[in-house]
Design brief:
The chain has 84 residues and is of the alpha+beta class. The protein has one domain: Glutaredoxin. It contains three helices and four strands; from the N terminus they run βαβαββα. The protein has a four-stranded mixed β-sheet, covered by helices on one side. The longest helix has 14 residues.
Amino acid sequence: MKIIFFTAPWCTPCHAMKPVIDWLKADVKVVDVSNEDSMALAKSMWVTSTPTIIFKKWDNEERVTWLTTLEALIEVRDKLWTNG
């Protein structure tokens, strides 16, 4: 499983989510992607807002956009981990 964290330097909610994402790095590989530096990737993955957090396991994925809590992200991770 991996987490793809789409962010932008000007995105205040992205900066607020960074410590939460960093906490998840202990259990899951996290890839930070700047929408500005990787517009083609963001477009190909249908990312239309920041922050966007994509949990991927094989062909399964779950998405979370905007601000959320650590508990909510753990719930998404665990759901995909057991059902994905």
